[in-house]
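The instructor's notes for this session suggest beginning with a concrete chain rather than abstract definitions. Hand out the sequence below and ask the class to guess, before any prediction is shown, which regions might be ordered.
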Amino acid sequence: MIRQIDSQLVFSALREHVGDWYEAVNGERETHAKMIEFYASGTERRTRILLGPLMAEYAKSPPRRILDVGSGFASIPVYLASQWPQTDILATDMTDRYFSCGAKAAAQLGADNIRFNVEDITTLEYKDEFDLVISCNMLNYMTSYAMLSDALSRLAAATRSGGRLVTYTPHFWSVREPFTSIPMLHFLPVAAQDKIVRKLGKRSGLSDVRNPSLREISGILKKHNFRRIGVHPSSAISRARATHMTAWFQKT
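After discussion, reveal the predicted structure:
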């Protein structure tokens, strides 16, 4: 592929295949229309928020190679592949359960500059290969500081010198639990959290997660020669009010 693909065609393909996924899993798609659209037409806005201060630079000179770890439905890497046809993109997740939607959309669009691999963040073994590494909603599943350190070390190793690393994750100091919005819930023991969300009918249960702090992420990456170039929300007070945090780092 050597041409940029019209974004409306991208949204249409994502809408079709993410919608098919919801229908296959839940028996219908109508009640999930908002989430389907989030992963379709909402992808452009989410991409701009995710890349933040990097977007203006990349609009002029896109990165040569991108690694997206924990890509979910892979709507963002598919969108990037459609807009940056000369960029080589690798989208990974621990299962193809979700990114099969993105793979089908990419095939439908003829986007041949994106690949999909089943890979766990705990076993990544890339070395100085990527200009941009993205990790969305993955680090919170590292249930100890040691696991977090190992995961970030692997992301750092995959990033070439001068490259960027973007982390988007629920964070430790959020007042509201990120996925249920229940105040202070995530500061309780996991068993208590699980009991509360079941009783309130928020969802069937709660996985054992550990939301990292900005200090932890920055401190670990500093050991691998990264400097933080931005964070959103920018102030500690604003981060406490938010449920997720985006941080941008550059490898020196």
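Then share the key points. The beta strands are 65-69, 88-93, 114-118, 130-136, 159-170, 226-232, 244-251. DSSP finds ten helices and seven strands in the chain.
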